[in-house]
């Protein structure tokens, strides 16, 4: 019988606009240490440059250009 009362209370708290989990989180101390997260400085420009250099160095750029040319030719030949 107690489980039914607990579920009913839980459902009633939602209908009244109280989210029990957010109420619990509001009571937690703010100065908690961030757990299981590593922060690193991001360098978007450097990351893009590194990715593009890898794209060119592995020859994928030639595969891209070849695919674009063959795709354009195929589209030209199959369209009216």
Properties at a glance:
80 residues; mainly alpha; 68% helix
Report the β-strand fraction as a percent range.
Answer: under 5%
Largest pleated sheet: none
Q: What helical percentage do the residues reach?
A: 55-70%
How many strands in all?
Answer: 0
Radius of gyration: 29 Å
- With helices defined by DSSP (H or I, 4 residues minimum), what is the helix count? 4
Shape: elongated
Low-confidence blocks of residues: none
Structural class: mainly alpha
**Helix/strand order, N-terminal first:** HHHH
The rounded distance between the terminal residues' Cα atoms is 74 Å
Mean pLDDT: 77
Account of the 3D structure:
The model has no long low-confidence stretch (mean pLDDT 77). By secondary structure, this protein is mainly α. It is elongated, with a radius of gyration of 29 Å.
What is the topology?
Blueprint: H1 2-15, H2 20-26, H3 44-57, H4 60-78
Please summarize what this structure is.
With 80 residues, the protein is an all-alpha fold. 68% of the residues lie in helices and 0% in strands. The chain has helices spanning 2-15, 20-26, 44-57, 60-78.
């Amino acid at each position: 019988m107690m489980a039914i009362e607990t579920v009913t209370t839980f459902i009633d708290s939602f209908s009244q606009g109280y989210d029990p989990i957010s109420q619990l989180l509001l009571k937690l101390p703010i100065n908690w240490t961030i757990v299981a997260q590593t922060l690193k400085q991001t360098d978007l420009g450097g990351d893009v440059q590194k990715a593009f250099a890898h794209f060119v160095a592995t020859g994928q750029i030639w595969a891209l250009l070849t695919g674009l040319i063959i795709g354009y030719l195929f589209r030209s030949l199959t369209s009216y």
